[in-house]
Structures are given as C-alpha cells and as structure tokens.
Design a protein that fits this description.
With 85 residues, this protein is mainly alpha-helical. The protein has one domain. Helix content is 76%, strand content 0%. The protein has 3 helices and no strands. The longest helix is centred in the N-terminal third of the chain and has 45 residues. It is rod-shaped, with a radius of gyration of 30 Å. It starts with a helix and ends with a helix.
C-alpha cells in the first residue's frame, strides 16, 4: 500500500505535467492567433490590390461579373425590364 508521502509526490508530479501541458497549449494558442492575424492581414492586402485575380471583396466581384456579362452581349432581366414591357 502507498504511503501518504508517495501519494503526495505522485500528485505533485501529475500537477506539474498538467501545468507543463497547459503552458504548451497556451504557447501554441498564441502562435495560432498570430498566424491567423498574419493570414487575415495578407488576405486584406490582397483584396485591396487589383494585381491579385479573384481576391476582390464579394460585392465588388459581383458587380464586375455583371459588367462582364453586359460586355459579352448577354442580358439579365432586372427591375427596369418589367417597366419596358
């Protein structure tokens, strides 16, 4: 049977392992947060650049797609089409 001192020592070792694991997770969490911020900043920089194809913000990309259709001679029905009929 284990003595009280042995149990206390095992408990302390387990607590140390848990604290070390918590510290590793905290460091990794901070690394992931930094990586996320870097990726977000990179994406926002790409969205602001006309040099990067396909990185325009969603509302601008939709407007440009509509402009391309008009340039191709295709016609989409819209509110003004109902008034002409």
């Amino acid at each position: 049977m284990e003595s009280g001192a042995e149990r206390e020592e095992q408990t302390e070792k387990a607590a140390e392992r848990l604290e070390e694991g918590a510290e590793r997770m905290e460091r990794r969490s901070e690394e992931v947060a930094e990586e996320t911020a870097d990726v977000r900043a990179d994406w926002e920089r790409k969205q602001a650049s006309s040099e990067v194809p396909g990185a325009e913000p969603a509302e601008e990309a939709g407007e440009e797609a509509g402009e391309e259709l008009a340039e191709d001679g295709e016609h989409q029905a819209g509110p003004s089409d109902d008034a002409d009929a």
